[in-house]
Amino acid sequence: MYEKYIKTLEFDKIKSILHSYAVSDGAKKMIDSLMPSAKKEIISLYQKQTSEAQSIILTRGSIPFGAIYDIRLLSRKAQIGSVLDAKSLLKIGDTLRTARISKAYVEQFNDIPVIRSLSDEINIFKHIEDEIERSILSETEISDDASADLRRIRRQINSEKQNIKNKLNEIVSSSKYSKILQDSVVTMRNERFVVPVKSENRADFPGIVHDTSSSGATMFIEPMAIVNMNNRLSTLKQEEHKEIERILAYLTSLVGEYCEDISHNCDILEQLDFIMAKGKLSVEMNAIEPKINDRKYIKLINARHPLIEKDKVVSSTIILGGEYSTLIITGPNTGGKTVTLKTLGLCSLMFQAGLHIPCDLESTICIFDNVFADIGDEQSIQQSLSTFSAHMTNIVYIMDNVGNNSLVLFDELGAGTDPIEGAGLAVSILETLKSKNILTVATTHYSELKNYALTQENVTNASVEFDINTLSPTYKLLIGVPGKSNAFEISKKLGLSEEIINSAKEHIKTDSIQMEDVISKLEKIRTDYEKKQEELQKELEDVKYIRLKLENKEQRQKEQNKKLIEDAKEKARKLIEDAKSEADIISKNLNKIKNSSDYKNIDRQMNELKTNINKYKEKYAKSKEELIAKSSKPLENINVGDIVYVNSFAKNAKVLSVDDAKDEVLIELGAIKMTVKKENLSTQEKIKEKKSTKAGKILTNKTKTAQTSVDLRGMDLETAILEVDKYIDNSYLGGLSEVTIIHGVGTLVLKKGIQSYLKKHKHIKSFRDGQYGEGGMGVTVATLK
Fold it and tell me: Which of the chain's termini has less CB crowding within 10 Å, N or C?
């Protein structure tokens, strides 16, 4: 790959974005050196890495990287015997901790073999982590817990310091020295405790002079009374320093023992960091891993330029290869031609660098040995001979180095010179590339190139759509349709007179005008076709929905009938078994009667047995009729005002409205109105009248006033629980089987408190969160016992 063209297509900007997602300096260096590859095995591996990283991020979040330092050099120093300082050891400890946590996190996933294989190579050194953490508090402080000797020495140092301070306090507070001392303070010079003495009183104060003030008026003297104490303190500090050196040397030896493994951990962490950065970029761009093909074919479905903001970018489907190797894109300025070229080129580079590309699933792309691009911003380049020369120099280089497996992108091919000569050169260049079957895309304003694409095989036109009504581009790429200049239409729309426009048309060749007319007609045909296609697609979706709905209804009906038949068979089997048992009893009684010497009661006993048999016959026949009735299909013709039987409530109800489209019926059950499925209804059943009692009247009243839901939003938890308790009691007495409690989402305090209360309530059988259409997380649906 030529770096010049990689830079032209702004691949360096993609790397800059990727850079921001990396944590470690090592991963950032890997990004800096990232280049597209032409080897299928490498591209496939890198794409797999990115896909696995994307999967982790979308399902559970990114690997929780902590600090990742480049500790390879530090570990090598430890190996050869150098003693590492506290700062270096802390970096090693932090990096080892990150390695351990990262490995544990990755081990949760079973569907990321590439990342798992890397993670498995990480070595865990928990004992080194723990020793460093226990021994070192900061870059400048070693913990007292680092060793028993260090703790003892520091206790002695503190004790000696206190003795010195006590002695000095006696001196500075003594009336004997009040006129001799410059000030009643204790300070330090050369790590020795001293007091400030007036210079003229030096002879009156025995001790060792350590410093003199800049004015010479004060001398800082170590009193003779504490010289030995300061000496002991210095000795203890030397012991402390030696013990710290010993501790650091010990920790360094632990690191040096595992130098190679620790360095390898650093390598793996940087690779994982780099892979996760690729995954984060993929998620941010809503990108996908395209399918690789070996057919020199590109199909990027709804491709988006990676560097344009999400809310501004317009997607285009780009197809190249297969039936044609050369694509010529025409259209007005600022219409999106150059963006289309850059989108194709940049997506190809990103793909071959192992990055996902921003397009839809089922996109496919091939691997190129090189991507060439002659692209310039014509809005910022003066069209002059120098510009033409610069473009031609670049094109000459491309033509000299292009290979059969290359992708070539030309922006405004042949522009910057005489239109006739420029068009001729452009056709010749494209023809040369076409003869070698090299995939090529070129943008142009020349009508000659439109004609070339219409008349030549293996070449096709494309255009960027322009809305003549709003005088603005839509940036949508249309393959197979050449673009119009729209100069006359735009001028007319802006108010230019018909006379001038007609005069302009007379100066243009007839075949050019006819060409524009053909393009206009094609554009109208395309627009009408797309409109009809959208209408047909909508109708097709409606038909699919209706068919799916009918199939689901039929399937539910079959399952319901099957269950009813199975229930009927089970009840029939039980009745037969009961009848057999009764018959056995009858047979035994008959045998007893036969053997009995008492014949007086035989007739009476025989009549009783016959009566019992007839009762079982009637019971069996009645049950059979009920089972057959329940096995039948649910009501089909239901009208407003009908009285129906609600199977789930075992009560009659009045029909208020019927929705045939949804197979639902709005019914009135006492004072309650609810919507039920038709399949839950059957013919009206007679309800036996019961004697009215006081308890019955209360139950009737509760039924009439029962509500299917209660709204607790805005209440505190205590008030809400009281309201729920009252509501459940009323619902239970009202005969409701299921109730809805509306508590909202908010901070979830109200929801958790209510559900905790429901677990203990004697009338609640079970409860669940609301489903889609019921209120979701904002409601709790409870089933009563």
Answer: C
